[in-house]
Amino acid sequence: MNMNSHAFAGNPIKSRTPKPREPVSPQSALKTLRTLLSTNSQIISDDDFFKILPFRKGKPLTGSTTIGLKWHLGWLSLSDCKSYLEKSQVVLTDDSLVYLGSQNENGVDFVYWGIDVSDASGLVDELGARQFCFVELRTLMVATDWSDSKAMSQLAIAGHGRALVEWHNTARFCGYCGSKTVPIEAGRRKQCSNDLCNKRIYPRVDPVVIMLVIDKENDRALLGRQSRFVPRMWSCLAGFIEPGESLEEAVRRETWEETGIEVGEVVYHSSQPWPGFYPFLSLSLSSSSFNY
Amino acid sequence: MNMNSHAFAGNPIKSRTPKPREPVSPQSALKTLRTLLSTNSQIISDDDFFKILPFRKGKPLTGSTTIGLKWHLGWLSLSDCKSYLEKSQVVLTDDSLVYLGSQNENGVDFVYWGIDVSDASGLVDELGARQFCFVELRTLMVATDWSDSKAMSQLAIAGHGRALVEWHNTARFCGYCGSKTVPIEAGRRKQCSNDLCNKRIYPRVDPVVIMLVIDKENDRALLGRQSRFVPRMWSCLAGFIEPGESLEEAVRRETWEETGIEVGEVVYHSSQPWPGFYPFLSLSLSSSSFNY
């Protein structure tokens, strides 16, 4: 199966889960990044190794080329990023930095970061003057040529970044004791700051099933429509997996709840990460044999 | 595929996601349950319609028959439950009650509830005298004859109950604003009590991949072992799905992280709910073509 066949899948950046004892760990990269961004130190040698993608309210920074109307992600160098932040008087908090992974290109390790600049309204004008703007992921998805694997990779990186950056907003406090959480592992995990609790908090990924229910004769599909849909718009049934359910059971329950129809065999098709406000994982299934 | 082939799958109780306008909604069942449990009212007519399963620190109440050493879940009637709670001076909070679903048997609707009695140490003796005790789910799993579909159903109900009951402990506070959360929809959802936030909180289901990686010749399997394992114990590789990953990508990343081996084709096998401290959903995949 081609991983690039689904939008938001096929992220080319290797994002190994951080291990504390790695020679160049994400933690040490974070330390370097924060030092260089926050102090008056001159950025010289490290500039080229950092690629920083700003997000504003879940939207990644995006530029476009006039030729062919193609978009590209607005990766900033460390010095450009620093100068933008200083001009718009933005001070990044610990929650705003997220390690996206690293990639070796021609023997050089590039380190990729997402930063959350939602509060930096001054930045919009600043970047707008440079033909950059913050664009909704769905818009980028529609604007992408799905046969262009390079563009699909960019979409996947943006989706991964959005999911991690947005998760920091929904995990500011520990669900168990209510204390503040602090980012650890370069923003890929969080931890409760209360020493008596100290719970580790992992990015939330909510599994969802989306299914095409078809009849035994394989000539009719079961679709649904919501009241908010425009006329003639129909969609596949879908829903969250509940605790205690297999995904095949979730397909059966959701179809039964929404339509009263009992589903027969359930066949897995593929899965796709979906970077909504919560980072969903959606699992496509096709399903045969309803009688109606 | 037979849903009962996996432990903790195949819950026979229909747990339709509560709809507020249903004639007999879980909310109205909750109101009845709370009224009958908390006041001095005599329980007469409704007693038989409620089946209540107590959980203590994630362990369901369990009894066993002397014949064949079979176990069964410790379902209590409303009046029994009330009398136990009164004897051990337990007052249930809103967070302690979870609607597990309803089932129509011979024209009568039975309503199933899970209750969390973790703080009620007095209850252990009380119930012990009646040959009931609280048993870890893994122990029940091992003690179950996997070809006995009725016993497997009981295991699935216990797993579903545990996942929901335990989730209330980890979702006491809103991750977004830090305020207290309150249960809604009969304990199947929670909501932030801060009117300015009001976020809805859904039970957390963490998708996990567990995979049997095999070589191209189909004659060797890739297994791992942790330092805490007993000698000669090996296990399949497994890991959490990260935001922005399809499950096929999670299989590849985890295998690469743990062993440095690149995985070829990934084939989905089946899925299983796993009621750990977090309610996992694990997805089994088999995978071929590593070269080593």
From TrEMBL, chains A, B:
Its EC number is 3.6.1.22. Residues 1-26 are annotated as: Disordered. GO terms for biological process: NAD+ catabolic process; NADP+ catabolic process. GO terms for cellular component: peroxisome. InterPro entries: NAD-cap_RNA_hydrolase_NudC, NADH_PPase-like_N, NudC-like_C, Nudix_hydrolase, NUDIX_hydrolase-like_dom_sf, NUDIX_hydrolase_CS, NUDIX_hydrolase_dom, Znr_NADH_PPase. It catalyses: a 5'-end NAD(+)-phospho-ribonucleoside in mRNA + H2O = a 5'-end phospho-adenosine-phospho-ribonucleoside in mRNA + beta-nicotinamide D-ribonucleotide + 2 H(+). Its cofactor is Mg(2+); Zn(2+). This is NAD(+) diphosphatase. The lineage of its organism: Eukaryota, Viridiplantae, Streptophyta, Embryophyta, Tracheophyta.
